[in-house]
Design goal:
Blueprint: E1 4-8, H1 14-29, E2 33-36, E3 47-51, H2 57-63, E4 68-72, H3 79-82
Parallel strand pairs: 1-2, 1-3, 3-4
Length: 83
Amino acid sequence: MPLKVVLNTHVRIMGSQVCIFDLAEKLKRKGIDAELNDWDNYHNYDVAVFMGVEPDLQQARSQNSNIFVVVCDPKQSSKQYIE
């Protein structure tokens, strides 16, 4: 079964360009199923990638307890959120 990845961000900053948009394109070129900004269907994915400022991490885990969550550029987030 192929890996399915969702990459979500609400922000357009340099970090999200590299960590979300560029990464999505690279994954697609490698043949990995990568979707951008699908905020409501975490049950369809194996991995969710977020920028550190995104509040939706808990929603992903509540919809899919088996999902792997990746936080990109966590320095933008609070210590509590990272934990």
